[in-house]
Design a protein that fits this description.
By secondary structure, the protein is α+β, with helices and mostly antiparallel strands. Helices cover about 40% and strands about 20% of the residues. It folds into three domains: about 150 residues, Rossmann fold (3-Layer(aba) Sandwich), CATH 3.40.50.620; about 90 residues, Uridine Diphospho-n-acetylenolpyruvylglucosamine Reductase, domain 3 (2-Layer Sandwich), CATH 3.30.465; about 110 residues, no CATH class. The radius of gyration is 28 Å and the shape is elongated.
């Protein structure tokens, strides 16, 4: 057996914890197929299965998934496959979708860790990209960042070693070439094929220097993680939200909070970007000073809700946004009769004299016009009064601070084809109780929790 084969199998054997069960993340490319081949040979008893993901980018992606299925089965391993179709997706969108699938697959197969095929070259590229976007030390750690549930057995090997393993395995090892890896449309490919070669020509030690920066950043990050474990009191609510005692973070200044919060949030699976960190620091300072009352909330990008409790700050992932309706006509439901009308996660019913008429959740609708309710559509507009300029429904929702993730499927009520009421947000004059105007009161209620 080739020495390179023995070496890489030894590296993989040592990189997969002996006391933990691993899920192999395999894309079908050379690096991950080497991981699959080596791990199946030396650590089959520690592998619960293989997970592969189709990013929806075309035939090459589907063929890669088919290859992983076949090669995994040939080695006696269970294979879980996922897929997505993200039109116009970015690299970040694909990465997030892939990791959501991998984490779900790990839970389903009861894996303790997920093993990836990242190499030293991937780390160099990652750190270079983080430098370009002016990342702090937490980000500059790149793939060296400590993780409780991800291992990277090949991380100290370069692609040349991986290619040598494949050559030594002859016709036994198969892999798929992804044509997107050559496209300069993707930032990583521009860094891989253009920037790094130019930097290496001008500064031959650039790879070693970037890796040294990453190691120092990783050590710094590990120190912060230990500090959080020892000095910040946090827990999890029954529904899985991260609960942080206010008194344990109130003692730090803004600079300290900016270091601590990303590490704290990561305990709850929340990744804070720079803007989110700044907003959360400001929110914490207000809570600690008593300027923000219990129940006050903050919404961060990435679907993260923050709430001030009594003596605590709670971080939770927001509910997934509703699945968009399938292509085709948007359903319209007539508002008529005495019964209730339901559409999506909303219910409409006629109200009596006790209706709170000032509430935006109620409206006085003209009974002499055809009334229907449907989800709002892009381009919808409402005119609040005669002679006023019609504004987009999207703007009304934004002005009412309806989070973007909750806007999909929000209902609008039309009278003779004209939008007159956005429940919970705004009514037009045509949906307002006025003397001498025949109409009927309606209430709207959310029924989706």
């Amino acid at each position: 057996m080739s020495e390179v084969v023995e070496r890489i199998r030894s590296v993989v054997d040592g990189g997969l914890p002996r006391d933990r069960r691993a899920l192999l993340a395999v894309s079908g490319g050379l690096d991950s197929m080497v991981l699959l081949d080596a791990a199946a040979a030396v650590a089959a008893d520690r592998i619960v299965g293989v997970a592969t993901f189709d990013h929806g980018t075309g035939p090459a992606a589907r063929e890669a998934v088919a290859l992983v299925r076949a090669e995994g089965a040939a080695r006696g391993l269970a294979v879980a496959a996922g897929a997505t179709a993200l039109a116009g997706a970015t690299e970040a969108d694909w990465r997030d979708a892939r990791w959501r699938f991998l984490r779900e697959a790990a839970r389903s197969l009861r894996a303790d860790v997920t093993a990836t095929g990242h190499t030293r070259d991937d780390q160099v590229e990652t750190v270079a990209m983080r430098v370009l976007r002016d990342a702090g030390p937490r980000g500059l750690a790149g793939l060296y960042a400590p993780s409780r549930d991800v291992v990277r057995p090949l991380l100290d090997l370069d692609r040349a070693a991986i290619a040598a393993y494949a050559a030594a395995r002859g016709g036994v090892l198969r892999w798929a070439e992804d044509p997107s890896n050559r496209s300069l449309r993707h930032r990583r490919n521009r860094v891989r094929h253009e920037l790094l070669p130019a930097l290496r020509a001008a500064r031959p030690a650039i790879d070693a220097e970037l890796l040294a920066v990453a190691r120092e950043a990783s050590a710094w990050r590990a120190d912060v993680e230990r500090f959080v474990d020892e000095h910040v009191a946090f827990d999890w609510s029954p529904e899985g939200a991260l609960v942080v005692a206010t008194e344990t973070v109130a003692r730090y200044d803004p600079e300290g909070l900016a270091v601590l919060w990303p590490a704290i949030a990561a305990r709850g699976g929340v990744r804070l970007d720079r803007r989110g960190t700044v907003r959360l620091v400001q929110f914490t300072i207000r809570v600690a000073a008593g300027a923000t009352v219990a129940g006050a909330a903050l919404q961060l990008s990435g679907g993260v809700d923050v709430e001030a409790g009594r003596g605590e700050i709670v971080l939770r992932r927001a509910r997934a946004r509703p699945v968009p309706a399938p292509p085709g006509p948007t359903p319209e439901v007539p508002l008529e009769g005495e019964g209730e009308v339901a559409i999506g996660g909303w219910r409409f019913r006629r109200g009596g004299d006790g209706v709170e008429r000032k509430s935006p959740w109620s409206a006085y609708l003209p009974e002499d016009r055809s009334l229907v309710v449907r989800p709002w559509r892009a381009g919808d507009r409402m005119r609040v009064a005669a002679g006023r300029t019609a504004r987009r429904v999207k703007r009304f929702l934004a002005d009412a601070h309806v989070p973007a993730r909750q806007r999909s499927g929000w209902p609008v009520v039309l009278a003779d084809g004209e939008i007159v009421w956005i429940p919970g947000v705004r009514r037009s004059d045509a949906a307002t109780d006025r003397p001498g105007q025949p109409g009927v009161h309606y209430l709207c209620e959310r029924i989706d929790g």
